Structure formats: C-alpha cells, structure tokens
C-alpha cells in the first residue's frame, strides 16, 4: 500500500473516531433519560442498544477493523443480554461469565504487547503492592453485596471476576509505567471505566442505589469509546512503536 493511501486511511479513521464522540454524547443523554423515566427492563435495554450501536458503527463505518476489538464488543453484547434479565434464572452467572471473557480477551490483546517489553524488578514490586490494594477493594465490595450474591449462588464466580479485574488493572498500570505513551493512557482509562461500570452496577443492584446507574452508563459509554480508540487509532500505535 502506498504512503498516500496509508495517510488517507489514517485521516479517514481519525474522522470516524471523532464522529463517534458526538454519537457517544447523544447516547449518554438517551441513557440518562432512560434511567430517569423508564421501568427496569426498558431502562436496561437501552444499554444493550448502546452496545449494538457501537458494534454496528465499528463493523460498518470504521476503517481497519481489529479482531480483538470485534471479539470484545460481541462478548459485551452477549453480556448485556443477561444484564437486561439479570435477576432471572442463571442470568447473573452468565453476566459474570461473559464479563470475565471480555476482560480475558482484553488481557490477551494487551499481553501480546507487554510480552515485547522487558520486565524489571521495581515495577513488579509496585505492581504487587497495587494488587494487594485492589484485592482489598474487591473484598470490601464483596462484603457490601455478599448477601445478594450468596442468594443467587454466584459468589464464587464473582471472586473469579474480581481477580480478572485486578489482573487487567495491573496490566494497564504496568503498561503505562513501562511505556508512558498516550496509547497506554488510553488503555488505562479504558480498564478503569470498565471496572467502575461493573462496580457501579453491582452496587446499584444489590444495595438498591438507583443513582449509581447514572455513573454506570457514563463510564460504560466512555469505555466503549476508549476501546475503539485504543484498538484502532493507528497514529497512537505508530507513535508508540517509534518511541519504544
């Protein structure tokens, strides 16, 4: 492919990603209205439709699609189906299962990059301390929502889910610590927004804190935008490779 065609592709991709920001603001407004005025199932269905929009936009309007991003979006879509009917049958179990799979694919994509970076002892020690802090936070969250988790029989998979959150956060922090690029910052905020989304939802559901749904939707939409930017922003990737 010639340099001019590559440049044209990058410019077109930038325009498509910039348009996505405006769509995200509109979707955030629609989600806030749904939380304020719709009953539970329609309100949750709006989040599902938000994921459908991002998947559709990515599949048909984005240049240079990435297999990992597609897999994560599809897993999030399936997860949101169980999110809509979370309290029915085994939906809670499958919600956490597809959450784990989503984090797993994100980790797989990230570790392909981290495998090329030399590990150093000081950063590993910092990572160990941060892991202990994150485990403590997950334990505190479990103590808040444990009665609800035990009644649905999903407490054990919640622990697995929490472990994946901790490992993904550590990967994001180590990535930034070792590379320090704008792309690593984008990945860090992506993981942080996904974590806050899941924490906000579990708190909202198991403690009946309805206002937490506003935070959940804001961080979820932010995470989807960052996912597409992280996976598809060629300029950030090229700049990172040049500086590494």
From TrEMBL:
The keyword Lipid metabolism does not apply. The keyword ATP-binding does not apply. The chain crosses the membrane at residues 20-39, 45-63, 68-86, 92-108, 120-139, 154-177, 184-206, 212-232. Keywords: Membrane, Transmembrane, Transmembrane helix. This is YhhN-like protein. It comes from Leeuwenhoekiella palythoae.
